[in-house]
Amino acid sequence: MNSNDEPPLTGQKLKTRKRDEREKYDSTAFRDVFFQGFLECGTDLEKITKWLDGSANKLDYRRYAEPLFDILFAGGILAPGGRILHDDDDSKVSRTDMCVAKVGQDQLKPFYQVFCKLIRQYKYLEKPFGDSLKKILQFLEGFTFNEVVNLAMITGIVLGNGLTTPSCLTSLFEDNLVKSGISLEFVTIMFRAWLKESGIDGISSGLKKAQLDNRLMEFMPITKQSPESFDKYYRVNGLSEIADLQAEVEELVQSTSAVIEPQTQAQEPESSATEAFSEGTTATQEAQEFSKPLLGDVAATAASAATATAATATAAAVTATAAAATARKQVNRQML
Description:
The chain is mostly helical and 336 residues long. It is built from 12 helices and no strands.
């Protein structure tokens, strides 16, 4: 062993390179440093955008993306259940009103531009952005009605411009949100904003990609989950495009069922024909076995009965095969 391989003496301190050191994750420390610069920008979203861009490396957005978007959406770090995490030290700022949930509705589109520029500049924030929005929708019960309205509108704007995918909406299928009607209120406002951004074609395309186009009914309380209630609700609320979209989905489901059912019925006669033919073959074999001379008159009687059974089974097979052919013709005519 050379001198370089010897273990250090007891009590000797080992020096580590800075690049090997990693600070402990501390979201509240991030919040405190974030607010120091963020609050200096006031309500000027132009200044906020520039400050956010210039602070990316210092604040380590890659590591602290979740508290970053918590603050921009809700004004502070979200604790489990959706409440804002407040510091025990009253001298520290725990929440700002310069966030999506608190600003006026006329500032929502400019706030979208803040998100858009930030994510375009730092692509690694794209997934955390969608994840944060999904989490916030799960905690809607912790927000006031006006805050929910703002969050619904920004969601519609974001989805209409493709900044994230509609998969974030799966949070709205939570039982507590559906039963309370929050999910329905949210998507009603969201669809209005989404329609303005990309029209019904954009909504239809986005929902299909996320495999949510056939789940719109699930946003409604269970007592209202019927085609009639759905159609009436959305037309009364000025969203006839969504009602028409749902009607198209239901029509497609019905037409698909109409094609599958006759095909199933056509398979049944073929199955009966196969069974009948098998029975006929078995009966014939039994007749031949019993007709051996060792059994005399008894064998002759059994052979006659077995042969008759075979003839009946064969006739049934012929009839079933003909029925299957007729059923197939009917299916082909329906498909045309």
